Amino acid sequence: PTRTVASRIAIDLKIFQTIASDGGCPKTNEQLAVVTGASPKLVQRITRMCASTNMLNEIGPGLYTPNALTRLLAQPQYAASIVFCFDCTQKSYADMPAYIRKIGFQNPENAVDGPFQYANNHVGHAFTWAAAHPEVFQAFHMYMHALRSHRPSWTDMYPVQERLITGLASEGDASALIDIGGGTGQTLEDFIKSTPQYTGKLVLQDLDEVISAAKSMGIGDNKRVELQVHDFFTEQPVKGARAYFLQWVLHDWPDEQCRKILGHLKDAMKPGYSKILIGEYVLSDHNAAWQHLSLDIYMLALASAQERTKTEWYKLIESCGLKIAGIYSKGDGNESVIEVVCEEDVSQ
Ligand SMILES: C[S@@+](CC[C@H](N)C(=O)[O-])C[C@H]1O[C@@H](n2cnc3c(N)ncnc32)[C@H](O)[C@@H]1O
């Protein structure tokens, strides 16, 4: 918590961007304090803490220069990751031990009545809380954009040509790849660049406020991506698409809601042709990667949700009457792509 709170205050004090400015020339606490009129003593306490965790360099007593991480955190989309993760979940972390004691040490499994609601006195899902807090909401989408630009793309692990493009219908809904809960379009934008040979329709689906944010960011202006407001707890309007893509969506929800989301996709799929592609962590059953476990606790605090092991993914998918056709991965600590087909697609 000390590292996180110091970095969150450093963002408000504009410490990273100031240290990175003017070609990164060395700066004192007094110079850094002028930017926001802060107390130099407070700035010193925050900068030296950030230096101790390599967010910046301390080259002499109270004298700072930027390193690669400082330069990243100086950019609004990277600073947004700290703003979102702190502002949205810190209260949940702080109150989670009390909440867990209160519920008799059970595993929280209700997306709208868990640690987040307890800590924030909120009725509804964490997403509705975020949507009602414009700065947090904006930070969330900036964070998702920044995050995606640093991770292997799903197309680096999944054989798109062999599994999607071969046999692709030339037009209409059957040619579609739909990014469901796709945020402000970061993944589809990357897909257009990395896979220009996919000539089918591309659809971005998300909630009203997110699609509006995507529009204001210019997504869809090139006419390549169709923007569609869609609540994934309702009937999927695009039937028989080539691929229904869900990246970092199911980890936001307990199993019960995941079954509803997947059920609507199952109803829309054309057996022998449509696939659901799930971009998520697949945890090892033994000695799982720390990145996976860290996000698991984060999802608990945010949404009474979870990361899933391979065994849990099979159980969830099969409980929906669907089948996992393959899991494609790229290295420990990264996401995987889980290809899901209709139960009857034995040869897929
Ligand atoms: C963790 S983000 C993932 C965004 C994107 N898929 C990615 O990987 O960058 C989850 C997304 O699900 C969306 N979402 C939440 N509830 C939804 C619902 N009921 N229907 C559609 N989208 C929803 C959120 O708005 C958010 O964009």
From TrEMBL:
All copies of domain O-methyltransferase C-terminal, residue ranges: 175-321
InterPro entries assigned: COMT-like, COMT_C, COMT_dimerisation, SAM-dependent_MTases_sf, WH-like_DNA-bd_sf, WH_DNA-bd_sf
Keyword Methyltransferase tagged: yes
Record: active site: H251
UniProt KW S-adenosyl-L-methionine keyword: yes
Family annotation (Pfam families): Dimerisation, Methyltransf_2
PANTHER family: O-METHYLTRANSFERASE, PUTATIVE (AFU_ORTHOLOGUE AFUA_4G14580)-RELATED
Protein name: Putative O-methyltransferase
Organism: Periconia macrospinosa
The organism's taxonomic lineage, starting at the top: Eukaryota, Fungi, Dikarya, Ascomycota, Pezizomycotina
